[in-house]
Amino acid sequence: MNTASAPTTPSNEPRYAAIKRHIRQQIEAGHWPVHFRVPSENDLAREFGVSRMTARRALSELTDEGVLMRTQGLGTFVAEPVPAGSLLEVRNIADEVSARGHSYSSRILLLREDAAPADVARALGVPEGARLFHSIIVHCDNDLPIQWEERFTNPALAPDYLQQDFSATTPNAYLSRVAPLTEADTTVEAIAAEADVAEALVLAPHSACLQIWRRTKSRAGIVSFARLVHPGNRYRLGAQLRF
Hints:
Layout: H1 15-28, H2 41-48, H3 52-64, E1 68-71, E2 75-78, E3 84-86, H4 93-99, E4 104-115, H5 118-124, E5 131-141, E6 144-153, H6 171-178, E7 183-192, H7 195-200, E8 208-218, E9 221-231, E10 236-238
Parallel strand pairs: 3-10
Antiparallel strand pairs: 1-2, 4-5, 5-6, 6-9, 7-8, 8-9
Helix pairs in contact: 1-3, 2-3
């Protein structure tokens, strides 16, 4: 284990912040690579001459920020860089995961026909109570949940939706084939995950998450209305504008 001496810190810097800065420096310098097991709370407390609670705060904040990942009974490890999606593109999440050289998998929580709630009916331009296809799927990157997807789909534009094997493909991939995208409306907001979403994403209740509302259209009409929830410490959105 690399146990480089704790760095000199400004006199007004909180001790937990000094520990965080030290850990980040070790990672950025390449001394602690991805999946490296970082010193324990006890080790850090001794090295920096602080209480275990102070060391725990540093590790917990870095975990919340996605720099570290903690595994019950095993310890704390350097996390892989947080995956990034594009705000300006509608990409298949399975392709995003594969592009990173990782393994994509999913868990299907719901796949059935339902009556359209009022807000969904307005978004899809159908009468309230109209029959829609309703799915809830958790998408994973190397078995780690990174997206909770709830989608309502117009049966008229994707009649075979319920017959698809969404363990082998994704709703995005299927809909792109049968009703090619021509337009998408997207809204992004920060939320605290409710209990069922937190459980599905293996998060503590009320954890910070990134929520995306997306309505997709084809030439034939509005195809689907989806709610996508990402753990705040496992995903980020970016955009590149050219002028």
